[in-house]
């Protein structure tokens, strides 16, 4: 049922407009420009990742400007994004983790139409490509669990994503190898829990880290 509702919303939107929103239109809806988002991430390199409503409430009072939304469903994601945006934060939705959305590109259209999200995260290149077409800030996520996964990351130079995120983020030697060989900015995420982890990741060349640990958000 949720999937068909999603199709209906996106079909109605596509029928009502013949062109993608302009940058001015996006800014009018409170959405940041891509270059501005990149600068903000680099200036405040601790990204708050939230996995429940408690995390959303706690992040709104933090100094950090960027929030990765790692939970929600098609009925609640608009409210989650609105709460983050109303706090003056940049909202980037991990689209793979939103219940009720499938792995089709139309899911990206739904996020673009139904929310004021500034960007998306996904492990799926097709989703990232669609996000870029719609003007969203895009982050391609990789789980670097073995040498084959590492080789795949190393092929991403010139990729269509605005940034890539590697997990786990507590491998400074691997992070350095990636950042030294790629021109695309790298974010480290996963298992980062304290100031030492953050410093190691940034010293290895990452432009930022993401963490669900509220204790690390103010570091």
Taking all residues together, what is the mean pLDDT?
A: 89
Helix content: 40-55%
Q: What is the makeup of the main sheet?
A: 8 strands, parallel, barrel
Say which CATH homologous superfamily is assigned: Aldolase class I
End-to-end Cα distance, whole Å, is 43 Å
Low-confidence blocks of residues: 13-24, 26-30
The figure for the number of domains is 1
Radius of gyration: 17 Å
CATH class: Alpha Beta
* Widest sheet, order of strands: 1-2-3-4-5-6-7-8
CATH topology grouping? TIM Barrel
Order of helices and strands: HHHEHEHEHEHEHEHEHEH
The CATH architecture term is Alpha-Beta Barrel
Q: State the secondary-structure class.
A: alpha/beta
Number of DSSP E strands: 8
Task: Specify the number of helices.
Answer: 11
| Shape descriptor | globular
Strand content: 15-25%
Structural commentary:
The protein is of the alpha/beta class and 219 residues long. The chain has one domain (33-217): Aldolase class I (TIM Barrel, Alpha-Beta Barrel). The protein has helices at residues 2-16, 23-28, 34-43, 53-59, 77-86, 106-114, 125-133, 147-154, 172-181, 195-203, 214-217, and strands spanning 46-50, 66-69, 90-94, 119-122, 137-143, 163-167, 186-189, 208-211. An eight-stranded parallel barrel has the order 1-2-3-4-5-6-7-8, surrounded by six helices.
């Amino acid at each position: 049922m949720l999937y068909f509702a999603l199709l209906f919303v996106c079909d109605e939107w596509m029928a009502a407009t013949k062109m993608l929103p302009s940058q001015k239109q996006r800014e009018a809806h409170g959405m940041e420009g891509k270059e501005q988002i990149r600068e903000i991430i680099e200036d405040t390199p601790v990204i708050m990742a939230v996995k429940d409503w408690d995390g959303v409430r706690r992040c709104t009072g933090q100094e950090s400007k960027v929030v990765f939304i790692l939970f929600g469903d098609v009925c609640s994601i608009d409210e989650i994004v609105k709460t983050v945006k109303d706090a003056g934060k940049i909202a980037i939705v991990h689209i793979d983790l939103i219940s009720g959305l499938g792995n089709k590109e139309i899911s990206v259209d739904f996020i673009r139409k139904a929310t004021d999200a500034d960007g998306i995260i996904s492990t799926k290149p097709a989703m990232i490509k669609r996000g870029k077409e719609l003007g969203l800030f895009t982050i391609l996520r990789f789980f670097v669990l073995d040498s084959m996964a590492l080789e795949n990351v190393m092929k991403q130079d010139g990729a269509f994503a605005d940034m890539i995120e590697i997990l786990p983020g507590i491998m400074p030697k691997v992070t350095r190898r990636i950042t030294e060989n790629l021109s695309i900015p790298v974010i480290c995420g996963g298992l980062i829990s304290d100031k030492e982890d953050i410093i190691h990741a940034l010293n290895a060349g990452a432009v930022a880290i993401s963490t669900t640990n509220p204790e690390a958000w103010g570091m």
